[in-house]
Each structure stands twice: as C-alpha cells, then as structure tokens.
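User: tokens in, sequence out, please.
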C-alpha cells in the first residue's frame, strides 16, 4: 500500500531504505481515487520509532492511505522535540471537523498510573468521544486498548503479579473471523505490560479473538468492527524489547529478561523475530475488512447518519 505522508518526515528515509513504498504528496494528488484517511494517535515516547513501525504495517495492501499523526497538547514530550511535533503532528483543533476511515491509538508507558492521573487523560477521552461520529474503525493497542475500554465502558485494568514481558504464543479463537483470515491456528506476539483486562468483563457485543496461556486476553473486537483492541505489540520491530530491556537495566529498574525473545535467554545474542508475518496480516485485515470494505465513500455520512452504534 502506498502510504502518503509528509515527505520530510524522518521515518520516510528509513522506510524507503527498507524497500517500503511511501508516496510523495505530488504523486498522490495525481491519482483519481479517494485515499483512506487514517489518524495515528502516537502516545509512545520514542515517537519516530513508532512512526516507522506503524507506517511499515500500513503499507501492505494495494490501497492508498493518507496518514495524519496527532499529538496530545496537554502533554510535554521528553523524547522528541516540539519542533518535530509541530512539523509532523496535528493538534485536535486542526482535525476536529475532519472525518477518518480509521484511527490507531498506540500504547503508552503509563499503565501503572490511574487513568485519571495521566496528564492527557481528559484530552484523550474527548478524542474518543469525538471518534464516535468522525472515525469508522479504531484500533487500540496495549495501554491504548485498556484506556479505550475504560473511557468507553468503564472497564478497569487489573495489576499483574509480575510484568508480562516477552514474545508469547497466541491462539486464534475463530479462524473464520475476518481479522484472522490467512492466519495459522497460533501465532506469536510481543507483550510489554504490568496490567491486564479480563474477557468476562467485556460487553456482550464483543468477540474474543485471541488469548494466550500466559498473556490472557490478547485481541478482542466489537462485533461491528468499529472498535478493535489488541493488548500486545504486534507493531514492535525486532529490537524494541531489547531497547526496553537495556534501558531498564541501565536505569536500575529491572534486570528481568524478556521471555522467549533472546536465543537461549542470552541478551548478547540477536533477538528472534517470529511475529512479523502475523503483524503484517493483522494490520492488512483490519484495513481491508474493518475499514475499507464498510466505510462510506463520503465520510461526512459518519456524522449525518450516526454510523457509530453504541
């Protein structure tokens, strides 16, 4: 899928080096088609890394996508310059009257805080309320999934006795579900979290799509696919967990080694990556079946005809 973004975004050079097709604005404007509009709410601290990861996964189908990144103006980022955010990210007041085929809400390293203690919580809640009439399908990732369930339904997160950290085997609960078309019976996914959600607390109009012996609930979705919740990190690249391990070790926070990640549990060896194909297929299925197949051609109908079903 040709991904259309600002050609000056630093992630573009990395994507092109990895042979991933990124279309510049001039070429995109010459194509007589309606592009899919995707809003990425990037809450991760290493924003440039997450930009590359998300854009790479949005590039695997033959549709054209226009991607906007959104910043939380109530939060001061420590790992990225404000100039980068002002140049490549939009504020909510700039997109408030826009409509999007899809939205991605990433994870964030704030899961040990109460939701209300997160400095941008009110802003995020307002965004999720707005999405009901301005976004067709939203994919929530890790803490973004927990935040979505709490903001929309009041469903709490629960503290784990030990951090869930590593790459874990997951089940495919319904192989015929559109989000898992093409999947094998099992797949692997990275997880990095200290809290969890329980399947029994989900609303009745949800499908439980994937679980794991160690991870518990992994992926769930509303039956109409307007909301998809993934509690792992399929978007992670090979070295993301390694970065987190080295960072925590250097800070004296933890020396816990991510499970099933390094060969022989030896951090000096190159980590294994066995989730890439599952990640690519999952994001492609979300774009195709939850977004492209059902979204109205005229996105203004999202508000006019109340496409969001409570």
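Assistant: Sequence out:
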């Amino acid at each position: 899928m040709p991904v259309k973004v600002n050609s000056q975004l630093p992630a573009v050079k990395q994507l092109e080096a990895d042979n991933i097709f990124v279309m510049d604005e001039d070429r995109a404007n010459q194509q007589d088609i309606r592009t899919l509009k995707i809003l990425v709410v990037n809450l991760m601290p290493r924003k440039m890394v997450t930009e590359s990861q998300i854009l790479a996964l949005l590039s695997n189908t033959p549709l054209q996508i226009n991607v906007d990144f959104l910043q939380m103006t109530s939060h001061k980022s420590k790992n990225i310059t404000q100039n980068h955010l002002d140049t490549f990210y939009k504020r909510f007041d700039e997109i408030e009257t826009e409509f999007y085929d899809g939205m991605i809400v990433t994870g964030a390293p704030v899961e040990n805080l109460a939701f209300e203690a997160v400095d941008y919580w009110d802003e995020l809640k307002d965004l999720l309320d707005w999405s009901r009439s301005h976004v067709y399908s939203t994919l929530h990732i890790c803490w973004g999934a927990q935040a979505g369930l709490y903001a929309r339904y009041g469903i709490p997160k629960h503290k784990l006795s030990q951090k869930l950290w590593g790459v874990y085997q997951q089940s495919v609960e319904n192989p015929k579900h559109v989000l898992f078309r093409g999947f094998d019976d099992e797949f692997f996914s990275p997880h990095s979290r200290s809290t969890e959600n329980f399947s029994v607390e989900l609303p009745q109009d949800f499908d439980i799509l994937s679980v794991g012996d160690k991870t518990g609930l992994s992926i769930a979705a509303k039956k109409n696919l307007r909301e998809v919740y993934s509690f792992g990190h399929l978007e992670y690249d090979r070295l993301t967990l390694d970065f987190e391990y080295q960072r925590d070790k250097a800070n004296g926070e933890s020396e816990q080694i991510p499970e099933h990640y390094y060969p022989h549990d030896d951090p000096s060896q190159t980590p294994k990556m066995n989730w890439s194909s599952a990640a690519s297929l999952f994001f492609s299925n979300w774009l195709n079946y939850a977004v492209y197949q059902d979204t109205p051609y005229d996105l203004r109908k999202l508000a006019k005809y109340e496409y969001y079903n409570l």
